[in-house]
Amino acid sequence: MSRTGLAVRPWQGRSVPMPDLDLYTPHRTVTDAAFEGVPVPGLRAEFFHRPDGERVASAGRYSMDGRDLMLAWGFADEEHCRWSAVRDPAGFWHAETEGCPVVRVLRAGAAPDDPVSGLAVRAPTGEWVTVDRGPVPAR
Question: Which domain of life is it from (predicted)?
Fold first, then answer.
């Protein structure tokens, strides 16, 4: 554990600093959280704060169907997240990346007004980690 409240987590042979949420205070939780102004049914966003000198460190953990998808962190006085990390369905965290993750809202069909069915988050490897509640296409 570093003195900044970041846990050191292994990732493919190197250490990745990620916030240790046990050192943070829960701030608020949003169900059916929105991305780009679009609510995503089932997406849970939990926000955490902790004092860091004269600033407030902030972290957001996003999950769907009980599975963590991503973690974004930085400072409450910054407009966007400073760092983010994506969690693979196999359960490991990809390396942190600078800035907010690339996120796509998934829809049940091709039309822009079709119902939202899930979310896709781009990992630093370029692959998309998805959670989609939409109908399974017929084979």
Answer: Bacteria
